[in-house]
Amino acid sequence: MLRALRGWKKDVVSDLRAAAMGAASLEDVIKWGHIVMFSNGPVLLIRAEEERVLFGFWRGKRLLEIEPRLKASGKYELANQVFRKGDQVDAKIAARLAKEAVALNRKLGNPQAAAKG
Q1: Sheet of strand 42-48, all strands in order from the earlier edge strand to the far edge
Q2: Most distant CA atoms of the chain, gap in Å
Q3: HSE-CB for 61 with a 13 A CA cutoff
Q4: How far apart are CA 9 and CA 72, in angstroms?
Q5: Distances (CA, A) of 70 to 5, 21, 27, 58, 113
Q6: Rounded to the nearest 5°, which phi and psi values hold at 102?
Q7: pLDDT at res. 115
Q8: Beta strand pairing status for 53-57 and 79-83?
Q9: 66-105 pLDDT per residue, tens
């Protein structure tokens, strides 16, 4: 997927992926057409779209204190940060978000199982 990207989107996706992978033990796969990272269930996603890149967290509503630019999405706990052309990734914040998201999955379990209950 990363090889197909060009310009600012490739830079943003690369920076987000590197920050997340450097912060926590995560397995990353291409699922649903974008990067999904797992640790005791899905933790985060990185999705490149036509005009934006989404950095989404299954338990993102619990991470707003770390990054207030996360916006709630859907009826569960999902929240996304949107990057557009010209936006820069703050690697420290991205890493902190990933690390805390992994800790939440460790503490609370797989968020997909919680959503089904």
Answers
A1: 27-31, 34-38, 42-48, 53-57, 79-83, 71-72
A2: 42
A3: 8
A4: 22
A5: 23, 20, 23, 12, 23
A6: -65, -45
A7: 62
A8: antiparallel
A9: 999 999 987 789 999 999 999 999 999 999 999 999 999 9
Domain ranges of the chain: 2-102
Share above pLDDT 70 across residues of the chain, in percent, rounded to a whole number = 94
Amino acid found at 107 = K
What are the DSSP E strand ranges found in the chain? Answer: 27-31, 34-38, 42-48, 53-57, 71-72, 79-83
Fold of the CATH domain 2-102:
Aspartate Aminotransferase, domain 1 (3.90.1150)
Query: Which residues make Cβ contacts (< 8 Å) with residue 93, sequence separation at least 6?
Result: 66, 67
Beta bridge partners of 31: 34
CA gap 50, 101 in Å, rounded: 26
